[in-house]
Design a protein that fits this description.
The chain is of the alpha/beta class and 262 residues long. It has helices at 6-11, 19-34, 48-55, 57-77, 99-108, 114-123, 132-140, 159-168, 188-197, 230-239; strands spanning 85-89, 96-97, 127-128, 146-155, 177-181, 209-215, 247-249. The strands form 2 sheets. Strands 5-4-1-6-7 form a 5-stranded parallel sheet, sandwiched between helices. It has a two-stranded antiparallel ribbon with strand order 2-3. The longest helix has 21 residues, at 57-77.
Length: 262
């Protein structure tokens, strides 16, 4: 079971040094991550990107270290905030691991469709991405000025199912905000502004400074310009001062805007 608080995890780090205890740590990651493998098909038949998410310790390690880096940044920035502040997280492949949905598509020889996706979401069976629970628990423990907002491009009609999945995994907290997409014009930037200004779906919550954003797509951090090329966007990301400071990207080799060249 994942340790719930990164501070406690850090304080206990000294006891895992040495070959024997390092081996125990790796075994724990294996149990956490490999426990997600439930399909009856031969895992070697899956595509490499799905296998990497479901079978590699490295995937779990990268996710954990990304969340730990995000926590260190939040912990450092929080004391300087005047008033309420928030961390904003994407949902899919950031908070919830949907690799089982990809496995089931593979089993049926199907590609993504909104019909199968919506049914998957309604099942509320997504697993937690490694590291996310410790991060959320740590953020909420800072105090009453700390807030969590989930901004997802899942259809807003699926918000109750998404919230149910989060609650089942212990990832939902009192006062959290979940903002699914209502229409095409309801971009993530529109919703981020609602968090900041306390308007729209955040009416009555007051203004909040976003001090960290976590996601698996560039659009989880800022809106790329229409028609931007891969090389242009790559340059923007590499030169952007907030990546690794306020922006924390998680790996997702299974799908994304990169498939369409952005």
């Amino acid at each position: 079971m994942e340790i719930n608080n990164f501070d406690r995890q850090s304080a206990a780090a000294g006891i895992v040094y040495g070959r024997k205890k390092a081996a125990l740590f790796v075994s724990a990651l294996l149990m956490i991550h490999f426990g997600l493998i439930t399909s009856g098909i031969a895992q070697e038949n899956l595509s490499k990107e799905i296998r990497w998410v479901r079978q590699s310790v490295e995937y779990a390690a990268v996710c954990k270290q990304t969340y730990f880096a995000a926590w260190r940044a939040v912990k450092s920035m929080a004391p300087a905030q005047q008033g309420d502040w928030a961390v904003v997280l994407d949902i899919d492949e950031t908070v919830l691991d949907n690799s089982q949905y990809q496995v089931e598509l593979f089993e049926r020889g199907e590609s993504f469709s909104y019909a199968t996706w919506n049914r998957w979401v309604e099942r509320k069976e997504s697993a937690a991405v490694p590291g996310v629970k410790a991060f959320l628990d740590s953020v909420r423990a800072i105090g009453p000025h700390a807030h969590v907002a989930f901004i997802t491009n899942r259809d807003a009609k699926l918000d109750p199912a998404t919230e149910g999945n989060l609650k089942a995994l212990g990832l939902w907290g009192d006062g959290d905000v979940l903002m699914g997409r209502r229409e095409r014009a309801d971009t993530k930037e529109v919703r981020r502004q609602e968090v900041i200004t306390g308007t729209g779906r955040c009416e009555g919550l007051g203004t909040r400074t976003i001090i960290a954003l976590i996601g698996d797509q560039v659009g989880d951090f800022f809106e790329p310009a229409d028609g931007v090329s891969y090389e242009e966007l790559k340059t923007q990301v590499l030169e952007h001062p907030d990546f690794g400071v306020r922006f924390f990207a998680l790996p997702n080799p299974m799908y994304g805007d990169w498939e369409r060249g952005y």
